[in-house]
Design a protein that fits this description.
Blueprint lengths: L1 E5 L3 H12 L3 E6 L5 H8 L5 E5 H7 L2 E4 L6 H8 L8 E4 L4 E2 L7 E2 L7 H8 L4 E4 L20 E6 L2 H14 L2 E4 L6 H18 L16
Parallel strand pairs: 1-2, 1-4, 2-3, 4-5, 5-8, 9-10
Antiparallel strand pairs: 6-7, 8-9
Bound molecules: NADP nicotinamide-adenine-dinucleotide phosphate (NAP).
NADP nicotinamide-adenine-dinucleotide phosphate binds next to helix 1 and helix 4.
Length: 218
């Protein structure tokens, strides 16, 4: 499969490498072609990796990943060209973080709206799945924790898209918890803050969420 990744940061590069390891072709996009981080990543990633603009990545990918600074999502999508997203699955990994008052950041939207819903409204014909936003990039691929595979929460309006993403998550090494429609982003984006605050308070970034269950009646 051809994967287009919008974003050259830690998430874009981590997921890009993960998709390559799983045998896919990946094009990483930035605001301009020849982005230094993307070019360095391509150099170290082999012949199935390429880079270009956001538009190049969006045109190339059969499956797309949005891994941009949350406050820049709209700008990145406009630069990429919304037509290129039409009908495709878009993994929205972003969080609407506001760093204006320093670290830890706050969320710039919440309760009655979310970054995930904003992305879905910008791209009404695209099958947006919010995913990967509740864990640090270092643990996104083949997470290795003593308690077994952690769970990745996802949400989105298209069940078939979520099934495809769920299968991918299985290959990445995750359990999957589907929270329903894209409005679930109103909960998943604050959950990112839980992950961040625990990291900031503990000084360690090696944690991930897992839901414990038992069978049988209460
Ligand atoms: N880092 C993590 O561990 C982690 C974990 C979970 C979720 N997330 C979320 O995932 C997203 C990506 O995070 P990240 O740390 O990998 O990268 P990031 O530094 O948040 O974003 C980097 C990307 O944003 C683009 N960008 C920045 N300003 C822009 C603008 N004005 N217009 C258009 N695009 C712009 C950059 O474009 P250029 O390439 O052109 O510079 C770059 O591709 C974020 O929303 C973050 O909250 C991060």
């Amino acid at each position: 499969m051809k994967v287009g990744i919008l974003g050259t940061g830690d998430v874009g590069r981590t997921l890009g490498t993960a998709f390559l390891e799983l045998g896919h072709k990946v094009r990483m996009g930035a605001r301009a072609r020849g982005n230094e981080k993307a070019a360095t990543w391509v150099k170290s990633s082999g012949p199935q990796a390429s880079e270009g603009s956001f538009a190049d990545a969006a045109t190339f990918g059969e499956l797309l990943v949005l891994a941009t600074l949350g406050s820049s999502n709209e700008s990145a999508i406009q630069l990429a060209g919304p037509k290129s997203f039409e009908g495709k699955i878009l993994l929205d990994t972003t969080n609407p973080l506001d760093f204006s008052k320093g670290f830890p950041p706050s969320l710039s939207v919440g309760h009655t709206d979310s970054g995930g819903e904003q992305v879905q409204r910008l791209l009404p014909g695209t099958r947006v799945v919010k995913v990967f936003n509740t864990v640090g990039h270092a643990h996104m691929f083949r997470p290795d924790f003593p308690g077994g595979p952690p769970d990745m929460f996802l949400c989105g309006n298209d069940d078939a898209a979520k099934k495809t993403v769920g299968e991918l998550l299985g290959q990445f090494g995750w359990g999957v918890i589907d929270l329903g429609g894209i409005e679930g982003s109103r909960l998943l984006e604050p959950l990112c803050m839980v992950w961040v605050l625990h990291g900031a308070r503990s000084g360690s970034w090696n944690h991930a969420f897992k839901m414990l269950r038992r069978s049988g009646a209460q």
